[in-house]
Amino acid sequence: MTRTGRPQLSPLLLTGLVVVVLALIPLGYVVVATVTMGPHELGALLWRARVGELLGNTLKLLVGTVLVTTVLGVGTAVLVSRTDLPGRGWWHALLSAPLAVPAFVNSYGWVSLTSDVQSYLGAVLVISLSYYPLVYLPVVGALATLEAAPEEVARSLGRSRTRAFLTAALPRLLPAVLGGGLLVGLHVLAEFGALQLLNYPTFTTAIYGQYRSSFTSNAGTVLASVLVALCIVLLLIELLARGRRRLDRVGRGTGRRPEPVPLGRFRPLALLGLLGLVALTLGVPLYSLTHWLVVGSSTAFPVGDLVGALVSTLGLAAAGAAVTVVMAMPLAWLVVRRRGAASTVLERAAYIANALPGIVVALALITVSIRVVPSLYQTLPVLLLAYAVLFLPRALVSVRSSLEHAPVLLDEVSRSLGQSTWATFRRVTLPLVSPGVGAGAALVFLAISTELTATLLLSPIGTDTLATKFWSASSSVQYGAAAPYAVLLILAALPATVMLSRQARPQEVSR
Amino acid sequence: MSSVTIAGVVKAYGDRRVLDAVDLHVADGSITSVLGASGCGKTTLLRIVAGFVRADAGSVTLGERVVEDGRTAVAPDRRGVGYVPQEGALFPHLDVAGNIMFGIPRGERTTSRLGELLELAELPADLAHRQPHQLSGGQQQRVAIARALAPAPRVILLDEPFSSLDAALRISAGKAVTRVLRHAGATALIVTHDQGEALSLADQVAVMRAGRFVQVDSPAGIYERPADAETAEFVGGASMIAAEVSGGIARCVAGAIPVAAADGRVRVLIRPEQVLLGPAAGAAVVGQVTEVGFYGAQVVVTLALADGTPLTARAPSARTPRPGDEVGVVIEGSAVTFGDES
């Protein structure tokens, strides 16, 4: 006789624990390095005019971009979802499209045309134009699930159309707006390439500068710990907002959708506004790219270099996606199949790692690898680990939802038909989860192929990706040489953008 | 196939005893239904027999083989127990043939074996390459049963097999499934909360309440001689009326009814189909109609007897009385009695 029932969970829990420990290395490094620094040195490094200036810059940019993206995101979402705007399907595609232009490519587009954007207002403008879809998409999604009844009741109680929207619909959109706005905040805190090009100093660019001048230093670590603290504050707010958003969706999809609001004499104004926005978000970078491709004096098509960068980008992205998905598997399994306090803690810990900017992850892994396993410094495994830490949550979301489509009941049926645990996994679970796991891997693949910061710091010597090649050309003002790489980067980001845009489609899209 | 013997099985979750020393024997080649309200522990018992859940104490024996004795247990894949869960739970990534042949060793998956199993489950051969979502609820159920029978298990377990089907389909699906099980000579244990299903499909009915079997008997035995008042009401419509027994006759407001009980105060169980309605004029017992439920061919009439005691009757709808009418009442046949509670 053999012992039966559920397989023992300790090896699985152990695997999950290893994954989370790996994912928490960067956070752990920052905390430990800061704490062991000693209060005297820490104080001296922290209370400096430089830190105050960076904090001011970062917060100013954060507030500015969150405000502008919220206004742009909500305004365009309402126009596309709730009015009789002509060609709403096309507008939706155009308004989501800026996600396909990485922020550092967009900045390059602006900076290479005019140096006027290298200022606070310029940085707010360019960063907001890159990130407003992060507000637009969730608000469109929320508007699509909103029923008409509460607004109609408000109208029947004597409210005007605008007042009814403000009092009966807007409060229900608030969680989506808040979630989107905070996501913008996290992206702004992590942004490095775009801000470096815009010549706007924040924590990320300062950490990078510190790293370039003195490799790893306590000064850099202190800057990183302030940045991490900002990220965690934002993340906590975002987690709260997400909790509320779930509640908000209870009982959706049963009611009727509101009638579209006729724009009337405002129609030309609305069309003109959207056209202007699209001209700024897509027109400027695309014009700039075309300009440098066609007339740029430094434009050359070093086909060998292009192909080389493309091949190593694809290779890194594939390897990174594989590592990330393999690490996500045991965590997802724990969360779905072994619900409990331990599983929840592990999953939350993996999500916290998501809040860390690429620059912090890279810096931490460099320091830890030099101190613990010097032979690994600037090798492929460390770079792949950085990718896994950065993109684990994306993989986790997909793998988790696919496992939820493979109920335990089917495993039990398989066991009763004489199949062992392993045969059941191979014949039942694996075929059922593979589509979701594949989608997760694709998302991570696409994210890695446009990743700049961690790649810049961690890639083995001689390994150039599209992003790093683009970076070395554009940061040395060879705009023409950077252009072909920018085109390939946009093409690499396009599939994920199409996917996200389709997920949040405005209701009754007229084509 | 083999018999199933469950002896003294105990299962507790925390402080809650879900199964409290349960005994049951299912003879080789027979069908037993476990009948109980939801939460009574019947599904846990099924999962212990299948091997998905360990018992805290007690034993499960399939034929001569002990598969669970409280200390050690045979893994579910080595028990030879077919399992048909609620809604069938077909593998969504496999077609009908893939589902049915799932438990058969690779070398034995022949077209002729598939044909036999489809025929056994009364499924047309052209269904073999349909996907599960293209099948009706009843067809899915029969594929699930063919899949469970395919590796020739010792016993087959069915967990609320018809609860996901609509009312019209339930009866025909139930009949079809019993035909398949009988044809295969299967030993089967069916868990259900539907007394109609339990009584019509099984050779033996085990009524479970709060983790214990209150009665294990033939379907007719359960209906005609329920062990207690609660069971009587659970397995069918029932009116309980206080009566005084003397000399084998119970006298009550519904008249004089022959019973097999000692003299004294009792409650008599009167089934709706025992109550015959007639004209009020000249009748010994008269009731006033308070409510009429119309079910097409039949009506269910609720009466108030002389002292207000309610009595339910089932009658053909051709002569439907109306609320407020006075009707004559005759109780047909003998009745079961229970101790007086008051």
Automatic annotation (TrEMBL), chain A:
Keyword annotations from UniProtKB, A to Z: Cell inner membrane, Cell membrane, Membrane, Transmembrane, Transmembrane helix, Transport
UniProt main location, coarse: membrane
A Gene Ontology cellular-component term: plasma membrane
Protein name as annotated: Iron ABC transporter permease
Protein's GO biological process: transmembrane transport
The keyword NADP is annotated on this UniProt entry: no
Cited InterPro entries: MetI-like (IPR000515), MetI-like_sf (IPR035906)
Membrane topology according to the record: Multi-pass membrane protein
Entry's localization field: Cell inner membrane; Cell membrane
Listed PROSITE patterns: ABC_TM1
Entry similarity comment: Belongs to the binding-protein-dependent transport system permease family.
Transmembrane domains' residue ranges: 12-38, 58-80, 92-111, 131-149, 170-190, 222-241, 266-287, 307-336, 348-370, 376-397, 436-462, 482-501
From TrEMBL, chain B:
Domain ABC transporter, first and last residues per copy: 4-235
SUPFAM superfamilies reported for this sequence: MOP-like (SSF50331), P-loop containing nucleoside triphosphate hydrolases (SSF52540)
Taxonomic superkingdom: Bacteria
EC number: 7.6.2.9
Gene Ontology cellular component list: ATP-binding cassette (ABC) transporter complex
Pfam families, sorted: ABC_tran, TOBE_2
Keyword Zinc: no
Entry keyword set: ATP-binding, Cell membrane, Ion transport, Iron, Iron transport, Membrane, Nucleotide-binding, Transport
Broad class of enzyme this protein falls into: translocase
Claim: Translocase is one of the keywords in the record: no
Gene3D superfamilies (alphabetical): P-loop containing nucleotide triphosphate hydrolases
Molecular function in Gene Ontology: ABC-type ferric iron transporter activity; ABC-type quaternary ammonium compound transporting activity; ATP binding; ATP hydrolysis activity
Record's protein name: ABC-type quaternary amine transporter
Species for this entry: Nocardioides marmoriginsengisoli
